[in-house]
Known about the structure:
By secondary structure, this protein is mostly beta strands. The protein has one domain (about 1-180): Jelly Rolls (Sandwich). Helices cover about 10% and strands about 45% of the residues. The chain has helices at about 30-40, 165-170, 175-180, and strands at about 1-5, 10-15, 20, 25, 45-55, 55-65, 70-75, 80-85, 95-105, 110, 115-120, 125-135, 140-145, 165. Strands 1-2-10-7-12-5 form a 6-stranded antiparallel β-sheet, with no helix packed on it. Strands 6, 8, 9, 11, 13 and 14 form a 6-stranded mixed β-sheet that branches. The longest helix has 7 residues, at about 30-40. It is globular and about 50 Å long.
Amino acid sequence: MEVIKTSIEDLVVIQPKVFEDERGSFMEAYKESFIKENFPDINFIQDNESKSTYGVLRGLHFQKSPFEQTKLVRVIEGEVLDVAVDLRKNSPTYGKWESIIFSGENKNQFLIPKGFAHGFVVLSQEAIFSYKVDNSYALEFEDRIDCFDHTLGIDWIVPYEKLIISLKDKKLPKFKSSTS
Length: 180
């Protein structure tokens, strides 16, 4: 496995080694010793998985303290545009975001630390999205940001009229008001 830095400190891509031959492929999707060696403060406690169709947009979600979560996300099947927004107020990249296309083909993973909002949109006909978290979900500490906030200016790639968004995600606070 290789750690690839992004333009935002602590937000990294993890690229696994994939072994391919005439039978197919093999990779270590998660290796505790690798995580402990490179990210000693992370202890994943739960795996989550979602299945979505083209245009489904999930996000931008985050948990407030003390239930903030570090996430290790990957796409098992299909393709998504994954987005992480830095909400760490003392960070030089506060309010900045990174978007990366992840797929079952490239097998890359996104390590999203505590203090980030996270969302993704499905680019393929269908996608299976998997992620590990290091803290429990707590409804009363859940928060969201408007995915279309012009302050952020995220290009979700999928045309707006083709997006499928939950009712809960349609009327969200803007970036500045939800994080201040």
